[in-house]
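Review form for a predicted model. The reviewer records the input and the model, then writes brief findings.
Reviewer: anonymous (R2)
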Amino acid sequence: MSKNCKTYRFLCTGALAGLANGLFGAGGGLFLVPLLSRWCGLPVRGAFATSVAVIFPLSILSAILYYMHGALPVSDALPYLIGGAAGGLIAGRIFQNVRMVWLRRAFGALILYGGIRAVLLL
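Model under review:
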């Protein structure tokens, strides 16, 4: 694969993640993990880690934009930030010890759960 093709794939993947993050407030990882692993050729474990590294700055940017438009109640978000940070630390510690098949299954189940909720419960 040529360097231009790889760059194009990386840019498209990042753009999809940014669009999902901006439109839905999160969810870029839903695009990043499969696209980084299958379309861009990263190992699956690397795709999960890269997804976190990409989503973090995108989430900060989205939060700033939501805040500027008066749609981010910071005091309401603080407990979730603390809980999310704790969960992220725990997950980061156990990440290397979980077999890939279980990470993929858990990720798929999470996507399926979110999809069902979005379609049926909104």
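Findings: The mean pLDDT is 83.
Further findings: Helices lie at 3-24, 28-39, 44-68, 74-94, 100-120.
Recommendation: see findings above.
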